[in-house]
Write a structure and sequence with these properties.
This protein is α/β, with parallel strands linked by helices. Helix content is 35%, strand content 23%. The chain contains 18 helices and 22 strands. A hairpin with a 7-residue loop joins strand 18 and strand 19. It starts with a helix and ends with a helix.
């Protein structure tokens, strides 16, 4: 598109918003544009470039348990400069008790790979090399790397990528301090020189672990490190039948067994973009999608969960699990409204736009009503909600009926189609300690790292539309009185404490025509949930610091 056409399109868009939704929405559009385009190069550099003083301090640190970390890197016709960059990134680690296990399946035309590796082995015993008789593929070759490993922990490094100098130090730190048995870090894609990264969206800043995030896509990806003992009952690290998504299958299996999963929210892995990398062009390896679908399906089988997995088009590598809704139990809709007339109007609107019909509607006067309603499931909802797709209830119900789930909320837009709700996190710096994800996006955006496009585990749902099983609510409500103004958040946090998940469902879409003002007892909330506010794993601080989500 030419520059002139872009300008004309932008002017038309602004005029449309102004006349359709008014000056407040137009200002919001400008504010959102500024939000996403105001990050300096200095801020980008600060996200991943550490000072020499920091690195030197790490080198001098002595851990009580200086565990050995074995890094597995299968080699196949690795370009010489990529190979040297990768191996040198190990030599530059500020943590020294590591081992790099290299299994080389390169052909005769790439004999320099063996020569370089043997040279490094002669100079440093931490490099361990084996020339393979044949190329067994990524899974088989990695499994041969694993046979060389002597460390208590195993890390994975692709032959064309680079480790940040602090990576293994940070891994050893959480192993010592938190007894972590499965660790993953943030990462960043690069071309050429890692010191010339200029696009903030090249970084993948990740949330804390969520099983639904992982089923939706392999958000963990790089870097992973896990306790070797997690593999004791496994036939192998990688399984040939999942080639292309062998990492996704491995992470799904090992996180099921891990007792302490820790996310290091620093970009400590550099993922190189080049002509044949999956990160550059999925079409170069089309079998990736099929393998990932089978990997997620295999986890459902292991967990005794029913569900059908498929790509969430148009996104090939975002996956949707359709959990069966075997019956349609009664849902009581507790409607926040001012009058019986408003209740009747909302009822008519919902019934005309929803496929799900087994509903009853009650005007909500108190959260205490929930224990006495007739429905097996309850939806707390605002009468200002406009329904945007007919299957919105089914999409939420297929999540709410799962044993592991407490509450579910849909994707909600404001009247002007900017995002109102896409998940809530706790944040000490946010108003009322509640941070709304993707609040600077609209229905034209996919969200940072596709956050608006797949099912995610979230800290809290929203009272404007939240669905849950009545029985689960009643059990949690008995603990103590709800905190005024934070009732839905309070219950979601109780659920998390009892290992129940809260879920954001983007396939259910609504629009909130008018927001209500809520008086919140923030003093009591902070007193009750101080630790959670300070340490919400669902919020990556870089999302807010770098204006990403």
């Amino acid at each position: 598109m030419s520059k002139l056409k872009k300008i004309i399109k932008s002017i038309y868009s602004c005029l449309y918003i102004l006349f359709k939704y008014g000056p407040v929405s137009l200002k919001r559009k400008f504010d959102n544009y500024k939000y996403h385009n105001s990050i300096s190069q200095q801020m980008i550099d600060a996200a991943h470039i550490f000072s020499e003083d920091v690195l030197e301090k790490q080198r001098k640190t002595q851990f009580k348990n200086p565990i050995q970390i074995s890094i597995l890197t299968p080699l196949y016709n690795t370009p010489e400069d990529f190979l040297l960059d990768m191996m040198n990134s190990l030599k530059e680690q500020t943590y020294s008790n590591w081992q790099l296990c290299l299994a080389d399946a390169s052909d005769d035309n790439h004999s320099y790979v063996e020569e370089i590796c043997k040279k490094y082995c002669d100079e440093d015993s931490r490099f361990v090399y084996k020339k393979l008789d044949s190329n067994k593929g990524i899974s088989g070759n990695t499994n041969d790397c694993f046979k060389l490993a002597t460390g208590d922990y195993i890390g994975l490094l692709d032959h064309d990528d680079i480790l940040h100098a602090s990576l293994l130090y940070e891994v050893a730190k959480v192993i010592n301090e938190e007894n972590a048995d499965f660790i993953y870090t943030d990462e960043v894609k690069f071309e050429g020189n890692i010191h010339n990264i200029t696009d903030v969206k090249a970084f993948n800043f990740k949330p804390g672990f969520g099983v639904d995030d992982l089923r939706s896509h392999n958000f963990i990806c790089h870097f992973t490190c896990y306790k070797k003992s997690l593999l004791e009952s496994e036939p192998s690290l990688y399984r040939d039948e999942f080639n292309g998504s062998q990492d996704h299958d491995m992470v799904l299996r090992l996180t099921e067994k891990a007792k302490r999963i820790v996310h290091i929210s620093k970009p400590l892995y550099y993922w190189r973009l080049h002509q044949q990398s999956v990160s550059m062009d999925l079409n170069s390896k089309p079998y990736v999608v099929d393998a990932a679908i089978r990997a997620v399906s295999a986890q459902l089988d292991r967990m005794n969960e029913k569900g059908t997995v498929h790509s969430s088009l148009p996104f090939l590598t975002i996956y949707k699990v359709d959990y069966p809704l075997e019956n349609k139990p009664l849902i009581t809709m507790l409607v926040n409204c001012d009058s019986v007339k408003a209740l009747d109007s909302f009822k008519s609107k919902v019934l005309s736009k929803s496929n799900y019909k087994n509903l009853e509607f009650i005007k909500m006067d108190s959260w205490n009503q929930i224990v006495d309603v007739n429905g097996e499931y309850v939806m707390v909802v605002s009468d200002q909600l406009e329904i945007l797709n007919e299957h919105w209830i089914e999409e939420m119900m297929m999540q709410a009926t799962r044993k592991s789930v407490f509450a579910v909320s849909p994707k909600i837009y404001n009247k002007d189609y900017t995002v109102n709700y896409a998940g809530v996190c706790l944040d000490k710096d946010a108003e009322n300690y509640l941070y709304s994800l993707c609040a600077h996006d609209s229905n034209m955006d996919i969200g940072y790292e596709g956050m608006l496009c797949h099912v995610r585990n979230v800290t809290a749902t929203t009272r404007d539309c939240m669905l849950f099983e009545k029985k689960k609510w009643v059990e949690l409500a008995q603990i103590r009185n709800l905190i005024s103004g934070y009732e839905e958040v309070d219950m979601c946090l109780r659920a998390l404490a009892f290992k129940k998940q809260n879920v954001f469902v983007p396939y259910s879409e609504c629009r909130l025509m008018k927001s209500s003002v809520i008086k919140r007892d923030s003093i009591e909330f902070k007193s009750q949930y101080y630790n959670e506010i300070e340490n919400d794993i669902r919020l990556n601080a870089n999302w807010k610091n770098l204006n990403l989500a």
